User: Which sequence fits this backbone?
């Protein structure tokens, strides 16, 4: 059975590292993997998405509407934006952090209330967590991405040691302790 | 060994294995990483050139001299390099020369959606297109062999989803051929009319030979591939569309996957189509393969069912071919869009504000991070066409509308200025233009992910080198020294003064707004600022510069300390002095 995970967030939040860690884990488990990333323009604070697909044989590198098993959202509004891409019985893991788009900052649009409630009302299975304070506890607000990867790891049925190995491979040595701590804290939420 | 590689990383690995010696490119999403990864191999000489035309000519020179050579660019970059491209088709090569072009269907990071396959046909140069990272690696190596065998440059075409997807690729060892000997041969390398007339005949014969290759040998080596499953539906496709079609249709269809996009086979397609009941051509962008089929009397369905616009996907194909759609769920709220913005602490921000304060009404813009100055709340850019057009079109504007010249400026980044802005500036000086060009010198090629360029003083490998002096260059092309102003965009008063002085000048003027990009590793930042809630009157003046670190909460400004880089621009706008 092929599986699909979408990692969505705001450019600059570190979604690419998260997808790389996930990719490394899946390779270790012997899956065939395809990952599709966003480089370039939207990395400047725009809405970003990475597709991760794995299984026996993967043809298309992208995920389309109604196809994702898991959406890992680094930000509430982004979870809602990409919800249509999830299978109706999929799972949303969402960081409750809110980041205002510029249109909201300058008063041209409003950041809607009750985003997570609306996602639940649509029938989605939602796991919400506030990853920012956890990342700060681990040592840096920038570690939000690894906290979220930790939280997702718990729901994949892949043993923790493989995840830790992948974290070790993917993050620079100088930030290793911080990221291992962030992963552990996320895993134990 | 099998590795999970980005398409662009796999191309670089292929360059390494093919024994390529010289790589010269100009960055452009989604092609940039090929050259960045290639630069990691000590065995490959790698460089950033000032623009794509220079890069292609460097590669051409190296290939003619006898070493395997390569250049990469995005689709619009091939427009810039089109001049050498068309005639390199006539001269041919000595050692192999491969040109990578990356198209961007859906325009993730581009200003148009052009289809580079037309270039292969127009320049009569062979083109290959891979469907995943493994093929990126294999096809680039094959491209070098074909280049040498047919004595022609070969184009490798990617699209964004191939360039920026990771999949497994089989890597191997480098085989470095000795340089081929170069012998003088003006009939081959000097394309004056008498020689070119002879060469054109050679080119036409080459296409016939390559077509024969595409019909048969290409199939034997798996470059063009026929897969029969159900013959009710036949799919003729290439590149990422093959992946989409396989996912959507599986064994409900048979496939002719074309790895060689130019020249296209005729008999191979005819034979395949004859086996299948309904035949679809599934290709993003233009009806390139479809037109070829129809011209050769092969009955296919294509753009009438699909679209000329945007990216394809498995779901589009499932919908068109099978009439199937997947169920979805949707959050019942209005979701505001989230387009990209200038980073917190971006030096471009202060300069745009200074333009506003200096009474500038019209800004001809260019391509780079600063194009984001077109969006609200900055909203200062009027035009954006192609690299370099800010400076050249400003001149046209001012000749058409001289009375507005003191309210009109061009803005252009350092990399873009070197790429093709400097020729516009020469035109301004030469043709006595009363025009103000502003160079936003952030000491890097920002938009494409921070590449060095001739103004930064570093090579692609990070080695120190000479740096173009923008001031001296401006003087050298004929801008009076007294009409050149340098300002720090973090200092709003200083920048406004510089712009005002330039607008007041007689004759052409240049402003250099100088401050390195806030994301560069060597740049030291001040501690984040914060808002004194007691002093903040909620006037929102600080919001006018569109810094993503500032927002309003309960009527007062607040600064996100994880984003703020302490550039101090917002505090210069705060009359009550609440930011510090
Ligand atoms: C002909 C062409 N080549 C390449 C690109 C890709 N590209 C877009 S902006 C840019 C350079 C931007 O650098 P710079 O002018 O220094 O501005 P910055 O982004 O640093 O503000 C490049 C290479 C393009 N759009 N067109
Ligand atoms: S990358 Fe640099 S130049 Fe581009 S928006 Fe960010 S700070 Fe500005
Ligand atoms: S000092 Fe002000 S303008 Fe500069 S990054 Fe911080 S909040 Fe943004």
Assistant:
């Amino acid at each position: 059975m092929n599986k699909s995970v979408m990692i969505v967030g705001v450019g600059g939040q570190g979604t690419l590292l998260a997808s790389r860690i996930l990719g490394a884990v899946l390779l270790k488990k012997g899956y065939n993997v395809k990952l599709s990333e966003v480089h370039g323009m939207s990395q400047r604070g725009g809405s970003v998405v990475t597709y991760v697909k794995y299984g026996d044989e993967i043809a298309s590198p992208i995920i389309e509407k109604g196809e994702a098993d898991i959406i890992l959202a680094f930000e509430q509004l982004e979870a809602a934006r990409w919800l249509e891409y999830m299978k109706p019985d999929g799972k949303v893991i969402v960081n409750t952090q809110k980041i205002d788009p510029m249109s909201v900052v300058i008063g041209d649009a409003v950041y809607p209330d009750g985003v997570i409630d609306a996602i639940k009302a649509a029938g989605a299975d939602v796991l919400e967590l506030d990853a920012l304070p956890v990342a700060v506890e681990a040592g840096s607000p920038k570690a939000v991405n690894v906290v979220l990867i930790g939280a997702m790891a718990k729901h994949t049925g892949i043993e923790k040691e493989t995840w830790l190995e992948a974290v070790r491979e993917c993050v620079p040595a100088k930030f290793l302790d911080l990221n291992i701590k962030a992963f552990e804290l996320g895993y134990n939420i | 060994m099998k590795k999970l590689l980005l398409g662009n990383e796999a191309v670089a690995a292929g360059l390494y294995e093919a024994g390529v010696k010289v790589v010269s490119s100009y960055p452009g999403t989604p092609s940039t990483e090929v050259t960045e990864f290639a630069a990691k191999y000590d065995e490959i000489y790698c460089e950033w050139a000032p623009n794509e035309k220079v890069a292609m000519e460097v590669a051409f020179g190296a290939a003619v001299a006898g070493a395997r050579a390569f250049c990469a660019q995005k689709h619009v970059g091939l427009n810039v390099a089109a001049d050498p491209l068309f005639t390199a088709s006539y001269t041919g090569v000595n050692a192999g020369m491969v040109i990578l072009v990356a198209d961007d269907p859906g325009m993730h990071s581009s200003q148009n959606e052009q289809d580079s396959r037309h270039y292969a046909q127009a320049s009569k140069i062979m083109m290959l297109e891979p469907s995943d990272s493994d093929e990126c690696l294999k096809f680039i190596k094959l491209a070098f062999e074909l280049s040498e065998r047919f004595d022609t440059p070969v184009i490798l075409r990617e699209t964004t989803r191939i360039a920026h997807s990771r999949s497994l690729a089989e890597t191997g060892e480098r085989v470095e051929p000795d340089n081929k000997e170069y012998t003088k041969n003006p009939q081959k390398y000097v394309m004056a009319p008498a020689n070119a007339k002879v060469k054109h005949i050679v080119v036409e014969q080459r296409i016939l030979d390559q077509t024969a290759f595409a019909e048969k040998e290409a199939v034997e080596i798996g470059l063009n591939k026929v897969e029969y499953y159900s013959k009710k539906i036949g799919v003729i496709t290439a590149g990422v569309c093959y992946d989409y079609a396989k996912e959507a249709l599986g064994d409900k269809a048979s496939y002719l996957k074309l790895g060689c996009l130019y020249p296209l086979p005729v008999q191979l397609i005819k034979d395949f189509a004859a086996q299948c009941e309904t035949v679809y051509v599934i290709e993003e962008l233009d009806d390139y393969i479809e037109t070829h089929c129809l011209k050769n009397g092969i009955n296919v369905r294509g753009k009438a069912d699909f679209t000329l616009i945007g990216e394809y996907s498995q779901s589009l194909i499932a919908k068109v071919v099978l009439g199937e759609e997947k169920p979805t769920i949707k959050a019942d709220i209005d979701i505001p869009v989230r387009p990209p913005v200038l980073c917190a602490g971006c030096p471009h921000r202060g300069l745009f504000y200074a333009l506003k304060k200096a009474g500038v009404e019209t800004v001809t813009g260019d391509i780079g991070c600063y194009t984001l100055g077109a969006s609200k709340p900055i909203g200062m850019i009027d035009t954006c066409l192609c690299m370099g057009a800010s400076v050249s079109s400003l001149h046209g504007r001012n000749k058409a509308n001289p009375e507005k010249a003191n309210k009109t400026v061009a803005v252009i980044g350092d990399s873009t200025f070197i790429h093709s802005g400097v020729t516009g500036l020469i035109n301004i000086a030469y043709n006595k233009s009363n025009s103000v060009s502003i160079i936003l010198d952030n000491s890097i090629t920002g938009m494409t992910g921070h590449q060095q360029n001739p103004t930064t003083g570093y090579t692609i490998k990070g080695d120190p080198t000479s740096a173009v002096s923008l001031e001296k260059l401006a003087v050298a092309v004929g801008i009076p020294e007294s009409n050149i102003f340098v300002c720090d965009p973090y200092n709003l008063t200083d920048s406004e003064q510089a712009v005002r002085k330039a607008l007041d000048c007689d004759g052409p003027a240049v402003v250099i707004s100088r401050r390195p990009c806030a994301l560069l590793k060597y740049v030291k930042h001040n501690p984040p600022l914060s808002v004194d809630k007691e002093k903040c009157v909620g006037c929102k003046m600080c919001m006018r510069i569109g810094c993503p670190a500032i927002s309003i909460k309960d009527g007062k400004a607040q600064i996100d300390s994880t984003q703020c880089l302490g550039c101090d621009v917002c505090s210069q706008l705060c009359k009550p002095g609440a930011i510090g």
